[in-house]
Amino acid sequence: MKPRILSHPDFRRLWTADLLSQLGSRLATSAAPLLAVLTLNATTLQVSLLRTCETAAWLLFGLFAGAWVDRVRCLPVLVWADIGRAILYGSIPVAAWLGVLGLTQLYVVLALSGLLTVLFDVAHSSYPPRLLTAEQLLPANAKLAANHSVAAVIGAGAGGFLVQWLTAAVTLGFNALSFVWSALWLRSIRTPESRPVPAERPDLRREIGEGLRYVFRHPLLRPITLNTTSTFLFQSANGAVMIVFLVREIHLSPSTIGLLSMIGLLGALAASWFTERLSDWLGEARALLLASVGLGMAFLLQALTGPGWGLLWYVGSMLLAAVCIIVSAILQSSIRQRLTPPELQGRVSATTSFVAWGVAPIGSLLGGVLATAFTLRTTLWISGTGALLGAAFVVFSPLRTLRTIPTPQPTP
Asked: What is the CB-side half-sphere exposure of residue 363 using CA atoms within 13 A?
């Protein structure tokens, strides 16, 4: 009988805190570009730079964060990252009320909160193996992925409506409150977390190198990581221009964008519940292959979005993308955590996140440059084609011959 993960009281607290933190991040994702487009009259390139600022920290500090998290307790990192992000986002409605809000402050807030998000995400990915047993990781990751789904659905819908009713700046103030609430839930976790035993001779460069070598020499982690990296590159190019495309070419209001995104993202909510069954039916490797190809197809179909009935392409592609993203996220997290030794969890998590999220600012900038040089729709076609081609990393890998992922034997 599979464990009932929500019967674990401290995992319930972690799960609740994660939901609130994810909700805050989703509100920011939808409200920040709307603030730039509707209030600050930003150009397409300036809007794309918002996402570049938000994700640049992965490129600059991702690997260092992994090596550092392997040396410290994760829970305090999670709490202080939430508190820091609350302060940063809380400054935006204050500046708007004082009449001094500008693009420069928005860039700074997103860049600094992006750094805290790197620390939060690496610690968050490394914490479940310290809190749970090995057999609890897959159901735990499924529940945490459900938070991504719920936050995506609520954040997309509520973000659009809140921006239309209360302005984007006030919406980002609600984002700050969600981080405060998340920090309070994390503080209530009672399970003791021991500090990792430090190396006899700490060497940051060597420790980072160990994480990189483990990922890129592993026959299963390497293709998964490369697929995720290529997907993030072109997904970021797509996301950098999508809001501008929907506002300026399809002429949608913020509330309509939120409603359509919410409908599409309902697939993510469903995926978080059926991924475990899909994995049992097809096997982890086959389910991951299917999700990777489906995700590329979804981004390609978004380029067909048009006014009127053409909006069905946007909703359908969002639905497919949301399902595939959640299935991939659950399976990749569980596979990575199971294949990685405990002493390398933080560095392997940071390495995979670094090479994936590290290309996100490049992809965002690429989207803005392509949209400036060509058209917004052409940019969507290029990004969709690139995302689909990225599935080749897993299709032509040892994963193609597997059904389930073998569990490694512990090293004596």
From this structure: 29
Residues 271 and 320 sit within 8 Å (Cβ to Cβ): no
Widest pairwise Cα distance in the chain: 65
Distance between CA atoms of residues 345 and 326, nearest Å: 21
Structure tokens belonging to residue 381: 């076609």
> Who's near 158: CB < 8 A, 6+ residues apart?
27, 258
If we measure between CA atoms, which residue out of 303, 366, 354 comes closest to residue 49?
Answer: 366
Would you state the structure tokens that stand for residue 271, as one six-digit string? 């995926």
Classify the phi-psi angles of 167: left when phi > 0, otherwise alpha if psi is within -120 to 50, otherwise beta. Answer: left
Name the helix (H) or strand (E) containing 25. helix 9-34
| CATH T-level fold of 7-187+204-401 | Growth Hormone; Chain: A; (1.20.1250)
Contacts of 127 (CB under 8 A, 6+ apart): 14, 74, 75, 78, 193
Structure confidence by residue, pLDDT tens digits, 319-345: 899 889 888 888 888 888 888 887 787
Confidence of residue 188 (pLDDT cuts 50, 70, 90): very high
Structure confidence by residue, pLDDT tens digits, 58-100: 888 877 887 788 788 889 999 999 999 999 999 999 998 998 9
pLDDT of 285 reads 87
- The CA–CA distances, whole Å, from 304 to 226, 243, 268, 317, 380 equal 27, 15, 21, 9, 9
Task: Confirm if 331 and 284 have CB atoms less than 8 A apart.
Answer: yes
Q: Is the pLDDT of residue 412 over 70?
A: no
| Residues of the chain by 3-state class (helix, strand, coil), percent to 5 | 85, 0, 15
Going from N- to C-terminal start, the domains of the chain cover 7-187+204-401
- Residue 127 tokens read as 């914490």
| Average pLDDT of span 21-35 | 81
Burial (CB count <10 Å: 0-12, 13-18, 19+), residue 104? exposed
SS3 345: helix
Contact 250, 307 (CB under 8 A): yes
Q: Is 133 left (phi over 0), alpha (psi -120 to 50) or beta?
A: beta
- Predicted TM-score of the model (pTM): 0.70
Token duo for residue 119: 């620390």
Q: How many Å from the N-terminal Cα to the C-terminal Cα in the chain?
A: 30
Residues in the chain: 412
Is-contact 355 332, C-beta < 8 A? Answer: no
* pLDDT, position 198: 59
